[in-house]
């Protein structure tokens, strides 16, 4: 099974969804480490309960972004993941860091990209009068929230929805989407080719090959 590292900053509910998917022995990967830039992230406690290595690399303990990233890199060099999943990791990564893991680092974003990159996506979707909202799993590239799209899920926006109600409902879709997208990547049904997410093989032939 492929080695997965997850980077978080807080609650870690998407992390939990990935861990839960990996409990099925037929899932093509297993979570080897969870790293948080915030030592008090709730997700670190959750990871420990699952007996997964939970590492805090406190950004406040380092002089600048570069020094902090070096410390994260040192942990990743030790863990040797095949793939890195960003799951609510709320710190921008430098171009150097991103290039190093090109094609091997994916992120979940709470909007139907390329709509609403950045923060406050639920409020912005409501303000724009959208009738649907959604989430996107994409490869991480140097430009934030612009990497090639691997998979998306959409939900309807209902009358009376608030940013909070929308966020809650979308989160449930995120928890289904992220393990699905991760499986596509781990089984090489999707790969990043020439800066776009290419569908390489149909699921049946991919299943047989793996
Ligand atoms: C999720 O909704 C995720 O899509 C979002 O943060 C939340 C993390 O929740 N990510 C971003 O906004 C990335 N820019 P979680 O810690 O419970 O998975």
TrEMBL record:
Substrates-to-products reaction catalysed: N(1)-(5-phospho-beta-D-ribosyl)glycinamide + (6R)-10-formyltetrahydrofolate = N(2)-formyl-N(1)-(5-phospho-beta-D-ribosyl)glycinamide + (6S)-5,6,7,8-tetrahydrofolate + H(+)
PROSITE patterns hit by this protein: GART (PS00373), PROKAR_LIPOPROTEIN (PS51257)
Residue sites binding (6R)-10-formyltetrahydrofolate per the record: 65, 90-93, 107
Top enzyme class: transferase
Any single Gene Ontology cellular-component annotation: cytosol
InterPro entries noted in UniProt: Formyl_transf_N, Formyl_transf_N_sf, GART, GART_AS
Residues the record marks as site: Raises pKa of active site His: 145
Binding sites annotated in the UniProt record for N(1)-(5-phospho-beta-D-ribosyl)glycinamide: 12-14
One term of GO molecular function: phosphoribosylglycinamide formyltransferase activity
Its EC number(s): 2.1.2.2
Keywords assigned: Purine biosynthesis, Transferase
Function per UniProt: Catalyzes the transfer of a formyl group from 10-formyltetrahydrofolate to 5-phospho-ribosyl-glycinamide (GAR), producing 5-phospho-ribosyl-N-formylglycinamide (FGAR) and tetrahydrofolate.
Family statement: Belongs to the GART family.
PANTHER family given in the database record: PHOSPHORIBOSYLGLYCINAMIDE FORMYLTRANSFERASE
NCBIfam families per record: PurN
Protein name stated in the entry: Phosphoribosylglycinamide formyltransferase
Organism of origin: Jiella flava
Source taxonomy: Bacteria, Pseudomonadati, Pseudomonadota, Alphaproteobacteria, Hyphomicrobiales
